[in-house]
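Hey, quick one: can you model this chain's 3D structure?
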Amino acid sequence: MDSRSFHIRGKRLPLCARCTGELAGILLCLLSAPFALPPALPALGLLVPMVLDGGIQALTPYESGNLRRLVTGTLFGSGLTTLFLRSTVWTFRFGMALGASL
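Sure thing. Here's the predicted structure for all 102 residues.
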């Protein structure tokens, strides 16, 4: 929807505000991961705002603004990427330990 996207010089960006936030969160997480990666439980908490915002929007006449969509999308993208990276590291370590025990 045109109203759910950002515009630059009158042209609509190809991603909605929420997806733009998710992409920004993914990129920010990947850039900051070598320095600090939050634990899994707080990262799981970062998913909640977007799920609530989208869920409330789907079930009621409420419609959030693009700034809220951007922020919740950024939190979600960061949290999801953190969980992905943590699970990848855990799986690698588990595989190494399993291989060493054989």
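One thing worth noting: The helical segments are 17-32, 40-45, 48-59, 66-101.
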